[in-house]
Amino acid sequence: MPTRTLGTGGPTVSALGLGAMGMSGAYGAADRAESVATVHAALDAGVSLIDTGDFYAMGHNELLLAEALRGR
């Protein structure tokens, strides 16, 4: 997976990122197990940039990502 440095001297992340907003029902119903599996697949493919925000379903997104990242 190609990488990019954010800004000047910022962290190096994968050139492709995973947008997580839809995993918290922003675009309709979201399946928790499918969302966790999607995060796992992205990590396995070398993705290190996951776009999230605390305003995605009032913190649900961070809790979902915590579950997906636990033990990885």
Structure notes:
The protein is an alpha+beta fold and 72 residues long. The chain has one domain (17-69). Helix content is 32%, strand content 17%. It contains two helices and four strands, in the order βββαβα. The protein has a two-stranded antiparallel ribbon with strand order 1-2. A two-stranded parallel ribbon has the order 3-4. α1 crosses α2. The model has no long low-confidence stretch (mean pLDDT 94).
Set down the secondary structure blueprint.
Layout lengths: L2 E3 L6 E3 L2 E3 L12 H13 L4 E3 L8 H10 L3
Parallel strand pairs: 3-4
Antiparallel strand pairs: 1-2
List the keywords.
72 residues, alpha+beta, two-stranded antiparallel ribbon, two-stranded parallel sheet, 4 strands, 32% helix, 17% strand
Major sheet size, sense and barrel closure: 2 strands, antiparallel
Note the gap between the termini: 18 Å
Elements, N to C (H/E) = EEEHEH
Fraction in beta strands: 15-25%
Mean pLDDT: 94
Put the structure in a nutshell.
The protein is of the alpha+beta class. Helix content is 32%, strand content 17%.
